[in-house]
Amino acid sequence: MLLDCRKICTKCKIEKPFEAFTRTKQMKDGRLSYCTACKSAAAKARKQANPDKYSSKQAEYDRRYIERHPDRVRDVKRKWHQENSEKARETAAKWRDKNRNRVRLYIRMANARRRANGGRNSIHLVDEIMKAQRGMCVACKISLKNGYHIDHVMPIKLGGSNERTNLQLLCPTCNLQKKARHPVDFMQSRGFLL
Prior knowledge:
By secondary structure, this protein is mainly α. The chain has three domains: 2-46, Wheat Germ Agglutinin (Isolectin 2), domain 1 (2-Layer Sandwich), CATH 3.30.60; 50-97; 122-189, DNA Binding (I), subunit A, CATH 1.10.30.50. 50% of the residues lie in helices and 11% in strands. The chain contains eight helices and six strands. The chain has helices spanning 36-49, 51-68, 70-83, 85-98, 100-114, 125-132, 172-178, 183-189, and strands spanning 6-8, 15-17, 21-23, 31-35, 149-152, 167-170. A hairpin with a 6-residue loop joins strand 1 (6-8) and strand 2. Helix 1 packs across helix 2. The longest helix has 18 residues, at 51-68. The N and C termini lie far apart (97 Å).
């Protein structure tokens, strides 16, 4: 019986079928006085007027949803990646290009976890080390502006940790020459610590 009924929206003043109105127990006829299109437009206008308020609310909602439904979220992401594999690869490549320091940190932390030697570092770690080293390679004293490698002073292979105190920045040439050698042996080969 309700399928044949129509109602006039109080906002857009257009007569629409009952299905175009959201259900509610507050109204006698069981539907809101304005249509779902007007309801959506009003919500969008509120979000545009207060972007900070709604973005933080949405982020909190998303976080709670992910915590409650991890399997569902994982399945949706997996399906999207399968259907949009090319776009996913392009997006990932752009993100990696913009966040090289973060990628390096993630790789280093993953390697450290594999070896179970501990240590967690922040994203700002490279900036801290760069400032402490005054932007120069520890071994050859050239500028690191054109590139650098994050190096473990005592290599992980020789029992070094992934802690901040065991990290330094070297130019790519010095790091590739050092490999997994003991720091004293490496510096002696460079003419230091005779």
